[in-house]
Structure formats: C-alpha cells, structure tokens
Amino acid sequence: MERKNHPTLSAATLLFVYFAAMAAGMVELSLAAGYLTGTEAVTPGLVAAGAATLTGGLAFLAWSLWGLHRNTLVLARYALPVLALTAAAHLVVTVAGVSTQRSLNVSHFAAFGLTLMAVAGAGWLRRHYKTNDGGAHGQPRTGRLLAAAFGAAVVVASVATPGLAASMAGQHAVPHGEHGQSPHEESGQGSNPALDPGHHH
Question: Is the dihedral of CA 70, 73, 76, 79 positive or negative?
Fold first, then answer.
C-alpha cells in the first residue's frame, strides 16, 4: 500500500533534523575548544577527544547546511550511523561523569539530546517516505511550515543554549551588559558623576 505524502510534515521534520544537527555541531565545537585550549594539562586523551568533537562539529554543520540547501535528507545512509554513534558517545561520557564525579556534564548531555533528535527525525523520514525530498515534490502550507519551523527552533535552542553556556567558551563569554565597558565602569564606578570621588562642582 502506497504511503500518503504529507509535504508540510515532511518539510517541517527536515527542518527540525537540520536545526538539531546544526545546534549539535555548535555544541561539539564548544566542547572541542574546552578539550584543546582548556586550563587542564594537555594529555593524549584530551587531544583525541578534542579532535573527535572538532571533526564532528564541523561535519554536522556542513551536513546541515548542505541539506538545507538541497532541501533533502542528504547522505542519510552515512549520517544516521554517525549521529547515532555520536549520541552514544555523549551518553557514555554523561553517565560516566554522573557515576564518578557525581555531576552532570550539561554540554555532553545537550549534545546527546540534540543528536538524538536528529536521529529520530531522520529515521522517521527514511521510514515513512520512499523519496526523502523533504516535501519538495509537494506544496507544503507556508503558514504551518513557518509555525513548525519556529517551534523546532525553540525546542532546539532550549537544549543547545544550556549546553553552550556550560562549555568553556560559554563560561568565558563576556556578559552582554559589559561589552565595551572600561574596567573602571565594570567595577561600578564612574556610572554616576555625582558619586565619583574625583568629580568636583
């Protein structure tokens, strides 16, 4: 029996897959920065972990951008196993951290969740459609597709943001309210001339 085509649902799922993969790639890159340029002494294990996360992050970003440009699930035969293996690796690191250090590595947990989202969405597309065209052969409804894209972006961002914030890059980021301020202003002095001891009327 031929499956019924749902171009709007297919296109929305495709966007969700690539949004999740793109966010996972950014978290991977932030993890790579922590492994390769962190404050801990560089060891062969950290270098290997940094190289793996750097390669994965760049690959996820390239795959998602290419897929969004083609509007199709590209290289699904290879992408799905890689995503699944990456999710498993992040799960192992997360569980190991909880069991040994009694702490949750938020960045690895976020990367696990994002890659799992991409695997689930891509697997659903492959299982339900003979041609993984993301709805390109149909006419998805614009309003529903935009709503689905917004919802997918919110869900992905809610997982990716804590992961990025918990990484080394996120911990060393300058707060938005402090951009462009001098050290004198950041200390709270100089914001009000009347309170400045060196100000004379």
Answer: positive
List, in order, residues 6 or more apart from 154 with CB less than 8 Å away.
none
Closest CA to 11 of 156, 139, 157: 139
| Residue 188 φ/ψ region, left for φ over 0, alpha for ψ in the -120 to 50 degree band, beta for the rest | left
> What contacts 24+ positions apart, CB below 8 Å, involve 79-86?
79/122, 80/119, 80/122, 80/123, 80/126, 82/56, 83/21, 83/115, 83/118, 83/119, 83/122, 84/115, 84/119, 86/24, 86/28, 86/56, 86/111, 86/115
The residue to which tokens 């080394």 are assigned: 168
> How many of the other CB atoms lie within 10 Å of CB of 7?
17
Alpha carbon of 137 to those of 14, 69, 71, 129, 142: distances in Å? 14, 15, 10, 12, 15
- Half-sphere exposure of residue 15, counting CA atoms within 13 Å on the CB side? 21
pLDDT digits (tens, 9 = 90+) for 63-122: 999 999 998 899 988 999 999 999 999 999 999 988 888 888 899 999 999 999 999 999
Report helix, strand or coil for 185: helix
pTM for the model stands at 0.75
